[in-house]
User: What shape does this take?
Amino acid sequence: MKYRKIALAVSLLGLASAAYADNHTLSRNMASACASCHGTNGNSVGGMDPLAGMPKDEMIRKVKDFRSGAKPATVMHQLAKGYTDQQIEMIANYYAAQK
Amino acid sequence: MTLNRRDFIKAAGATVAIGSLYGCAGGAKGSGHVVVIGGGYGGATVAKYIRMWSNGGIDVTLVEPNPAFVSCPISNLVLAGEKTIADITTSYDGLKKHGVKIVHDTAIGIDPAKRVVTLSKSGTLSYDRLVVSPGIDFIWESVPGLTPALSDGKILHAWKAGPQTVALRKQLEAMRDGGTYALCIPKAPYRCPPGPYERASMIAHYLKAKKPKSKVLILDANADVTSKGPLFKKAWADLYGGILEYRGNHSITKLDAASQTVEFEFGDKVKADVLNIVPGQKAGLIASAAGLTNVGGRWCGVDWKTMESTAHKNVHVLGDATSATAGMPKSGHMTTQHAKVAAAAIVDLMSGLPAPDPMVIANTCYSFVSAKEAIHVAHPYVFNGKEFAVPKGAGGVSSARNEPEAKYAIAWAKNIWADALL
Assistant: This one.
């Protein structure tokens, strides 16, 4: 019984780990779209806001405010409308972890 | 049997630890050799991102004939004398630091069965996966009387940034005050939809200041301005009245190069001091040579989830050469986004994984209407199971031309060059 439990836990772990890797890769891929303007991994070379290391909650709030129109922008209010809440969160997670 | 809460927490905790290792320690991912044909926005970006995302696991060889990258975006500012060719040129040394091997040569053939690329001078290259990012080439028959030699001498296109950009600038500098600069625009689709209108605006800006008796004449094969129309037209009326004239529905029927005269469908003729003809366009030559142009014999069909060609397996096509869906412009920015979709897919596929879930991609394109003011068009694109499409209500253009966007346009260029090449 005990061994079966461990076996199940291990296999579940494998699944969860694969899911994490998928999720991490997708976050990285989604975030890379922003890099064309904001720099590789969010390290802007100037003139655009750096995203690397931006606290997660701050980015989520900003992008959602762009999307709703609460925060004025030249471009971001138009681009933010392409993203769901979950996608914004994924991207914010990725950039919060960058240096 | 059910898993109790404590077991689940244990499993989840271990997962976080493994996940962190996966995300940060990052050993090499994927193996094999990718050849990239073309070192423009798409080719440079895909080469760098494959090296980066595979942690150096995948070897990348980039084939590009030119010694350095010269950007089409911002090149209209070189024509106007606001920037130099050096300002829009970036070395390939940055890519070398990522471990990309650069071969300065031209690809002339692809054998998709044997997975071999033939180069013009330096033999052959074998690949596991190939990326073709060749940009555009011209349909010379679209302008009766125009030849490649004329187009590289007297009647320039300057639609690939580089020596032609410098040559067209010299023609404009040599033009007399009171002369006419005429720009002939081909039928869409062509590279950079707003590019011709930005060019006309910036040349009008230059002439207004330096040779105010001169004229800019836009002779457009399309019925109307194909991008940012109301914004360009307002800038022309406000800033270049009496200098710039726009004529739509002007398809060239004949060029007489000796007299610098073009004739049009409806019988009118125009003689210009500087005649800048942008011919009709198709995917870069290697694409048709390799049998990749399976859409109208002109553009390359791709599976948008991976950018893999619908003609040949293990060959991915990016950028202007693709048969982009309606609303997806042939732009440098768009091409870098194709490159990231392709890099993500290639790294996963070469690691024995399935292709990744689709990401959201975006295009942002700035156009200068004077040295100090710019306008933009921007759209996000979401994969709908078949292709990328703009969600309803998303995207748009500037509300009016403005100075901050001229600064953003330069910042955009510096960041996208760094993201592709450094």
